[in-house]
Design brief:
Length: 198
């Protein structure tokens, strides 16, 4: 579900009620779902935690396989107890995957620009090289891949709940240029306040 990247949520305290749980989002690029990927997430989080890049009070249960949840697994199972910020994290990971797939498809199709332009304009005959490209089955597959990736990205953006912006507010850098880590409740309150004032 998340091509080219895996998204995991490390729960701070498993003893909390599900709706009150908070955690840390970890994204692995270029990884496949596996036990090894989970171990990489655990090691990365431990290093960040021990180096003081994450609040000392995090991870009441330690950082273990039990406290890690794949967001792709969360997305596949209805979870009515998810907070808006958790749903936002799932959507953000899916949006990132759609964006990557779209841009990679466009890069693959870039050599076809002159061919497509010539066919659409109809103002000149195709060169021998363009004729070869036009008759190659890979060309049709590449163009269909671009269209499909563009449609997926457009549809997903239109279907998003808007909660992904809560994740942005949590990770946005403050004036000092350092990442700002805030409580889930504070992020939700900040996002709701402008709506209440309106």
């Amino acid at each position: 579900m998340f091509p080219h990247r895996l998204c995991y949520l490390i729960i701070d305290d498993l003893d909390c009620e599900p709706i009150a749980r908070q955690g840390t989002l970890v994204i692995l690029r270029g990884a496949m779902p596996s036990r090894r990927s989970s171990q990489r997430v655990i090691e990365l989080a431990r290093v960040l935690w021990e180096d003081g890049h994450l609040p000392a009070e995090r991870f009441a249960n330690g950082i273990t396989e039990e406290s890690i949840m794949s967001l792709s697994e969360m997305a596949d199972v209805p979870a009515p107890n998810l907070l808006p910020v958790e749903q936002g994290a799932i959507e953000l990971c899916q949006l990132l995957a759609c964006q990557v797939a779209y841009q990679q498809a466009c890069m693959e199709a870039r050599p076809l620009v002159s061919l497509v332009q010539a066919v659409l304009d109809g103002d000149r005959t195709l060169t021998p090289t363009e004729l070869d490209l036009a008759s190659d089955r890979k060309t049709a597959k590449t163009l269909q891949k671009v269209a499909s990736a563009c449609a997926d990205l457009t549809r997903f953006r239109e279907a998003m709940s808007g909660h992904a912006r809560l994740v942005l507010e949590i990770i946005r850098a403050d004036g000092a240029g350092e990442p700002e880590i805030v409580a889930t409740e504070e992020a939700i309150d900040t996002a709701i306040e402008p709506t209440l004032e309106a």
